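ok here's Glycoside hydrolase family 3 C-terminal domain-containing protein, seq below lol
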Amino acid sequence: MLKPILFSLSLFSVVPAVAQKPLYKDRNAATEARVKDLLGRMTVEEKVGQLGTLLGWEMYEKNGQRVGTSAAYRKAIDERHIGALWATLRADPWTQKTLKTGLNPTLAAEATNALQKYTVERTRLGIPLLLAEECPHGHMAIGTTVFPTSIGQSSTWNPALIRQMAAAIATEARAQGAHIGYGPVLDLAREPRWSRVEETYGEDPVLNGQMGVAMVQGFQGDNLKSGANIVSTLKHFTAYGVPEGGHNGGSISTGQRELYQSFLPPFRAAVGAGALSVMAAYNSIDGVPCSANEWLLTDLLRHRWGFQGFVVSDLNSVIGVMGNHHVAATPAEAMAMALNAGLDSDLSSYGYDKALHAAIDQKLVSAEVLDRAVSRVLRLKFDMGLFENPYVDAKKAGRQVKTPAHVALARQVARESIVLLKNEQNALPLSKTLQRIAVIGPNADNMYNQLGDYTAPQPDENVVTVLEGIRAKVAKGTQVTYVQGCAIRDTTTADIAAAVAAAKQAQVAVVVLGGSSARDFKTEYQSTGAATVTAAKSNQPISDMESGEGYDRATLDLLGKQLQLVQAVAATGTPVVVVLIKGRPLNLNWLAAHVPAMVDAWYPGQEGGNAVADVLFGDYNPAGRLPISVPKSVGQLPVYYNFKSPAKHDYVEMDAKPLYSFGHGLSYSTFAYSGLQVASPAESNGAVRVQVRCTVKNTSTRPGDEVVQLYLNDKVSSTVTPAKQLKKFQRITLKAGEQREVTFELTAEDLKLLNPKMEWVVEPGAFTVMVGASSEDIRLKADFEVKQPIRLSAAQ
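and the structure came out like this:
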């Protein structure tokens, strides 16, 4: 018996032990268990690396139609254990990636697969990358669909449409290997001199919040493992859009109550919709930089709002705690302040790198705080299924990007975004039987000027300009004459005489003016990607760019010789229609007084020319509404509609009202409002509900959309409240002669205010409901009264 037993033991001893799969690689294990297991296996160096997000466009190499990892990427992974990249697929003058040197969708997918393959297969733990991309109005990559910029999106007043658009953007980005989309921008734009107004949804917290929720829902969907959804990163947390003097990234001045009542609600709504990433803003609040603000990033965002995602810095803003704000003496102190406050990931990774190691060595950051931040990043990687499926199908990528359906959607968003500012004596729509049309102006046939900032290079055939849209719309025998006339900013060359001659021969002159956010390869850029504004050299042409990140304005006047151009054309006596393509409100005083029709298209995206032509010729009935007020002068600023009492009084030179108010927009149809009914509030168990009904009728002979807007005023309150505040809105479609009852419900969330004790309460007393077509065009009013006080919570 001895020999068999010995043989058996010998046999057993030579059978290799089956390696047990680490728990973090078990797809069936709970996410929290996987995170804990992986954290326990990581070195400090690997943990710090996971918090770094490097600039991604330097991380691939392209050789003809082949693409692979760069030496810089392999070094970043091998030596720094980087866990994320940003803007890998970005192409623009800043990155120096062109249509030739950048990546088409198929190569983009192959590139991200190569990047993932290296880190998954060549590192000790095989942790996949998170790839973040710019996605505010389309994925900022070559070959994708370019939608209208955010200020145009909000002009639709149609959250359902924007949710559909966001889902299309997510599909295109995810198909190429992206996991995170930067957007939406939820800053209130109450300072139109600021360069980034185009990236916002305007001046109002309710409209901003609804658009933000739509973007989050469209991006993230209900399944992050779907292969068609991306995580939404909310920008810029918070109050970034009201810098003093309009200086981008500059200091802001706002009280705590205004912060809670105006600037925070859009972010809170988007977090409530499930947003999983937030970007801290460059600015400080009450002397504390947002990137190192524990109250903002931890107490409020996580403890009060229940945020479950991770916080990322804006580019270089962590080191900016020291270099810009001067509240830290050393890089290590700056890193510690940010990480301890709750900022998890460093965009650029030149902050959370050697300086974070120094902070750890100096005991400025504890192991628990480091693990807290790393776990938030890893959790998302597990929840997106990246450990199981880090790759995308490169063969499908080209078919999923810029599909005919997405291009059609871009046209629809552009059409719904167009605001008819003025239409004297029904100058619009134009007749398609016109024989001679002059199309004039610097933005009539400049494709990049209609796309906005954060846009990749485009082949000519991708973008339809206004000139091309008009030519495609009219009859074959119609003569369409084009003259640029002048540039946006450059005054060294102009041909106003040719524009006048063309107008004299035409039956109508369509003059396309405005601004531009089109970057060029001559512009200098800061390390943050913002453009550097430099003085023009004598006798040399200058860029059209007068908007877009870094291009703040001192005035809002039409630049260059644009005003002289339109004045000369108007002086011919030929009827003039002005189309505005731009990223911020501009001074339109002369145009409003002398031009019969004016259309605002903002930056309408790649299908903008078709959309504008649809509106000009009546194939689409415009219903866009302004999401931001248009001032008469910078001397009026701020001029947002929901100012707090007391009422503004007039100036010596002019009145205090804007030229066009928030919510303004005309239609080719007319609408009548009647039958306002406000039910007595239903109050019980600390809740209140108020039903508001009215009837809206299309009194014209053509179908159209109307945006019904409900504003509220708290007649007597313990703290000062706005004279009127948008609370609800609906965009409805009515056939000619059709009428419909529109119903709104107001709750405690709509009626609440912050009392002197900084408590959210609904106070008993009278409220006024105002329903109409804009903040100034109120058609119906009624009062109701709340009987009982309701205490909701402390400030949050």
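fwiw The two ends are 79 Å apart (CA to CA). kinda neat tbh
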